[in-house]
Structures are given as structure tokens and as C-alpha cells.
């Protein structure tokens, strides 16, 4: 299989991994935020009762957790794909 073919075949796996990463990182973020702030929900950008620092910090933590989770899931998916097909999907 060519590298273009491997990328095309892997695409649905990558999309599913992104959805899974969003679900997992969202759950982790809620727990982290609850422990850090003592509040159930993180502030959103349009909630006036929160300071800019709190809103940006919440977004940064959430983004970092999502990126790390997505990278771990993508890497595991690529390794599994390689074991099944013999082709690395990212090259």
C-alpha cells in the first residue's frame, strides 16, 4: 500500500480518535478544574462574573489536556494500524 493509500484508509481511524480524545479530555478537564477551583464548571469566555485570567487559564488547561490526549490516541492508533497493515499512516 502506498503512503497516500495508507493515509486515506487511516483517515476514519484518525477522526474516531479525535472524537474519543475530546470525550476523554473533557472528562479529565472537568475533574482537574473541580479540584483546582472548587467549582463544578469552568468559566466560559462570555460569563461576566469571571476575570480574564480565570477564563484564559481554564481554556489553556483544557487545550493542553486535549492536545496531549489526542496525541496519545493518534500515536496508539497509528501503531495499531501499522501492525495490521505494515504501513505507517503519517509518512
Q: Can you describe this structure?
A:
By secondary structure, the protein is mainly alpha-helical. The chain has one domain. Helix content is 76%, strand content 0%. The protein contains 2 helices and no strands. Helix 1 runs antiparallel to helix 2. The protein is elongated, with a radius of gyration of 17 Å. The relative contact order is 0.21. The model has no long low-confidence stretch (mean pLDDT 90). Pfam families: DUF4235. Keywords: Membrane, Transmembrane, Transmembrane helix. InterPro entries: DUF4235.
Structural class: mainly alpha
Bulk shape: elongated
**Total count of domains:** 1
Query: How do the SSEs run, as a string of H and E?
Result: HH
Total strand segments: 0
Poorly predicted regions: none
Organism: Geodermatophilus nigrescens
Transmembrane segments: 12-33
Keywords: Membrane, Transmembrane, Transmembrane helix
Pfam family, one: DUF4235
